[in-house]
Specification:
With 579 residues, the protein is α/β, with parallel strands linked by helices. It has 15 helices and 27 strands. It has three domains: 180 residues, 3-Layer(aba) Sandwich (Rossmann fold), CATH 3.40.50; 201 residues, HUPs (Rossmann fold, 3-Layer(aba) Sandwich), CATH 3.40.50.620; 173 residues, 2-Layer Sandwich (GMP Synthetase, Chain A, domain 3), CATH 3.30.300.10. The strands form seven sheets. The protein has a seven-stranded mixed beta sheet, covered by helices on one side. Strands 17-18-19-20-27-24-22 form a seven-stranded mixed beta sheet. It has a five-stranded parallel beta sheet with strand order 14-13-12-15-16, sandwiched between helices. Helix 5 packs across helix 11. The chain is globular. Bound molecules: xanthosine-5'-monophosphate (XMP). The site of xanthosine-5'-monophosphate has 10 residues, from loops.
Length: 579
């Protein structure tokens, strides 16, 4: 996989691996000489235009290696840009979303693919002229060259995205390229790597012991278990930092699970007072995040310094997985690049000193789960919803002024700001609250946001003790009382979600505390069930009405809660977390 900057690059590599073929992600500019021995090359999509100065490029020699190449979206345009006769033209309208693809010249890439089929498009520029000796093989109503090929040179390009589920038969196309054209063998199977991974752990450790900070999440748990298998209990130790920002029962759950895995080689570090102390009076979400990140590093450093751990006989173990490895390694060109928390300065120096072991660094999340299953870890550890590191702190909203809700045509704008993402940038705006819930409101949520400049989310009131006209925000930050309130609400929702089977139908289900209510009941709760593939985009999920009503009733029974809202907004324009 040559990464030309598309957010879909890893998704393509994952799909290829799902088909049983090993794929590496490399920078698009990788010299052709380094790619000579590959079975096939796929060039990903990307947000740039081939004409922009400094936009991602490929070594044009890759098209003359005799190695089969598949260019996807921007990858197709790079092909047309570099091979004589081809031409990329700026699109006037762009084409985003579903399109009907008509295969006009069926070739090996389209074998077994329907003549007319739904595909997912996301592009502005397009190929205006195919290079010499290329055949145009498919079209859509707005894109005359939606696919092109030079079968003899084994060069193929497609404008649509075969890696997303919205493209029907996308896997057929990837399979045709991998097996029919590139002659790959179906021999990649993550669980067969177990022996190699364990050998790798022993090689890296070289007689030293391994120390882990466990979070209870899937990755660190599987990485820790692999080290236990490779080195034995005497040589592996884990600490869990109790920040006080976790869900109800989480610390006990992790303590029990890890004690079962590792016995005495596990400890809980109580840092609740430090975290709460540092967060006192802080309202702004990014400030909260920064404090939590810094405090985490401080606690980690303290543990490492005071324990016997970093005396040369210990190295640090981490559950870093493949996309994180790539994104921190400098190859990724995806628009938003953040420093991964596994790559902070202190840890960077351990890497440089060769004192870090990351057994999962070549695997994707779903592959990590397969490996975890193969070594006998229980589903309750492997099938957990993702949970953000800063924990309930980003779901406990704060306010710096007391204000009333404001009436607008569609409902009320709540006097609380939350984070969203519109047009690739972060927003911090109000929330439109509808006076009642109806399933139809999902469809109009985004439209309302586009109309109201100071709003980035839409929620519906499900139940409350007072009308929206009486709701006010109040000055508050994170404190023990509000955290306890949120923890109780979250536990009620999670309990009902698990029991009803709804938990399995959603990717994540944040429960948020809003500083917005009435006298004696100062806060409200928001339910935020979403579906997603990787957290980059998300859809709000409709809930069964009976379950919604039961949850609302349970939540209004919690001390201090005045209303229950249901978030109807997709990401974008909102984000998954409220912050
Ligand atoms: P947003 O709110 O940006 O969230 O739509 C996308 C996904 O990322 C998770 N998230 C985090 N995960 N550390 C994490 O490990 C963090 O600081 C963090 N912040 C957000 C969020 O829960 C969602 O799944």
């Amino acid at each position: 996989m040559l990464d030309a900057g598309g957010q879909y690059c890893h998704l393509i590599a994952r799909r290829v691996r799902e088909l049983g073929v090993y794929a590496d992600v490399m920078p698009s500019e990788t010299p052709a000489a380094e790619l000579e021995d590959r079975r096939g090359i796929i060039i990903s999509g990307g947000p740039a235009s081939v004409y922009e100065p400094g936009s991602p490029d490929v070594d044009p020699e890759i098209f003359s290696l005799g190695v089969p190449v598949l260019g996807i979206c921007y990858g197709l345009q790079l092909m047309a840009h570099h091979i004589p006769g081809g031409k990329v033209i700026p699109g006037v309208k762009g084409e985003y979303g579903m399109a009907q693809l008509r295969v006009t010249e069926p070739d090996r890439l389209f074998e077994g693919f329907q003549a007319v089929s739904q595909v997912w498009m996301s592009h502005r520029d397009k190929v205006g002229e195919a290079p010499e000796d290329f055949v145009v093989t498919a079209e859509t109503s707005t894109c005359a060259i939606a696919a092109m090929a030079n079968d003899w040179r084994k060069l193929y390009g497609i404008q649509f995205h075969p890696e997303v589920v919205h493209t029907h038969g996308g896997k057929v196309i990837l399979g045709n390229f991998l097996f029919g054209i590139a002659g790959c063998a179906q021999d990649w199977e993550p669980t067969r790597q177990l022996e190699e991974i364990e050998d790798g752990i022993r090689r890296t450790a070289r007689g030293r012991n391994v120390f882990f900070f466990a979070s209870g999440g899937v990755d660190s748990t599987v990485a820790f278990s692999l080290c236990l298998r490779a080195l034995g209990k005497e040589r592996v130790h884990a600490a869990y930092v109790d920040t006080g920002l976790m869900r109800e029962g989480e610390t006990e759950f992790v303590r029990e699970a890890f004690t079962r895995l590792a016995g005495d080689s596990f400890e809980v570090v109580d840092a609740k007072a430090e975290f709460l102390g540092k967060l006192a009076g802080v309202v702004e979400p990014e400030a909260k995040r920064k404090i939590i990140g810094e405090e985490f590093v401080a606690v980690q450093e303290r543990v490492l310094e005071t324990g016997p751990f970093l005396n040369g006989r210990w190295i640090l173990g981490q559950g870093t997985i493949y996309p994180d490895t790539i994104e921190s390694g400098g190859t990724a060109k995806a628009e938003v690049i953040k420093t991964h928390h596994n790559r902070v300065a202190g840890i960077q120096s351990l890497i440089e000193a060769g004192r870090l072991v990351e057994p999962l660094s070549q695997l994707y999340k779903d592959e990590v789960r397969q490996v975890g299953r193969a070594i006998g870890l229980p589903d309750e550890l492997l099938d957990r919803h993702p949970f953000p590191g800063p924990g309930l702190a980003i779901r406990c909203l704060c306010a710096s002024e007391a204000k009333a809700a404001r009436q607008v045509e569609d409902g009320w704008v709540l006097p609380v700001l939350s984070v969203g993402v519109q047009g690739d940038s972060r927003t911090y705006r109000g929330t439109l609250a509808l006076e009642s819930y109806s399933e139809g409101a999902f469809a109009t949520a985004t439209e309302s946001i586009n109309r109201l400049a100071d709003v980035n989310r839409v929620v519906a009131l499900v139940a409350g003790v007072a009308p929206l006209s009486e709701m006010r925000s109040y000055v508050c930050a994170i404190d023990a009382e509000r955290l306890a309130r949120l923890r109780r609400c979250d536990a009620i929702v999670r309990g009902m979600s698990l029991e009803s089977g709804f938990e399995e139908k959603v990717w994540q289900f944040p429960v948020v505390l809003l500083p917005c209510g009435v006298e004696g009941r100062p806060d409200s709760v928001v339910l935020r069930p979403i579906d997603s593939v990787d957290g980059m985009t998300a859809q709000a999920v409709p809930m069964p009405e009976g379950l919604l009503a039961r949850m609302a009733e349970g939540l209004l029974g919690v001390e201090g809660i005045s209303a229950v809202f249901y978030d109807l907004t997709n990401k974008p324009p909102a984000t998954i977390e409220w912050e």
